[in-house]
């Protein structure tokens, strides 16, 4: 399968560290899950990154993510993060997955993360806002279609025209935009999670 040019997929490549690269401003999605990465570093070369998957590595702390000012979705599930420093998380985050890390057992963990990330829509596969909030107030996601839908960021079979059509359909419909965008990201992360589980447990049907 051909990946969109805005996507880099290097999962399950036995990578132990993220090296320094030249500026790759065209990259919106980066998949590095199921490697041996111990440290988050050298991601400043991806200034327009929207989706970052580092699940299933050996990362012990969240750091060096502040240069990713446009990051919307971050999957750090199943690492070795014991204590979470929310100041290291980009304010732009709308989806965050830290399941399988010791830090999720910190006292007041969920409240702490929600207070630090005002734009967050989903934390550890659980929505952060009820449907009743959709009718009132304003949200930055209503004006950030490109942040939420940066184009095909999934490594799976997704036609580029689908995203273009989706953008046109959602134009001018802020409430519907919020629901459908969240559903799309939930489906994307769920598919990624299911594939990861199959890799970890090959006996599953």
From TrEMBL:
Instruction: Kindly list the places in or outside the cell where this protein is found, as annotated in its UniProt entry.
Output: Cell projection, Cilium
Name of the gene = Lrrc46
Coiled-coil ranges (or none) = 175-202
Q: Does the keyword Transcription regulation apply?
A: no
The molecule here is called: LRC46 protein
Which keywords accompany this UniProt record? Cell projection, Cilium, Coiled coil, Leucine-rich repeat, Repeat
Keyword Repeat in annotation: yes
Residues of the U2A'/phosphoprotein 32 family A C-terminal domain: 106-124
Gene Ontology CC entries for this record: nucleus
Bias category Acidic residues: which stretches?
Answer: 131-148
Xref: InterPro entries: Cilia_flagella_integrity (IPR050576), Leu-rich_rpt (IPR001611), Leu-rich_rpt_4 (IPR025875), LRR_dom_sf (IPR032675), U2A'_phosphoprotein32A_C (IPR003603)
Query: Which SMART domains does this UniProt record tie to the protein?
Result: LRR_SD22, LRRcap
């Amino acid at each position: 399968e051909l990946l969109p040019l805005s996507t880099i997929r290097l999962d399950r490549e036995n990578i132990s560290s993220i090296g320094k690269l030249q500026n790759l401003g065209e990259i919106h999605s980066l998949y590095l899950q199921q490697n041996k990465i111990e440290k988050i570093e050298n991601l400043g070369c991806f200034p327009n990154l929207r989706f970052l998957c580092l699940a299933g590595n050996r990362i012990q702390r969240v750091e060096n993510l502040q240069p990713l000012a446009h990051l919307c979705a971050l999957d750090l599930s199943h690492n070795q993060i014991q204590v979470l420093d929310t100041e290291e998380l980009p304010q732009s985050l709308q989806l965050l997955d830290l399941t399988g890390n010791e830090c999720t057992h910190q006292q007041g963990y969920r409240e702490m993360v929600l207070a630090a990330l005002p734009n967050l829509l989903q934390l550890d596969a659980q929505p952060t806002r009820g449907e009743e909030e959709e009718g009132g107030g304003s949200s930055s996601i209503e004006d950030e279609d490109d942040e939420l839908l940066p184009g095909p960021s999934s490594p799976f079979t997704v036609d580029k025209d689908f995203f273009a059509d989706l953008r046109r359909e959602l134009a001018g419909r802020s409430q519907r935009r919020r629901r459908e965008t969240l559903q799309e990201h939930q489906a994307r992360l769920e598919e990624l999670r299911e594939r990861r589980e199959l890799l970890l447990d090959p006996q599953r049907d």
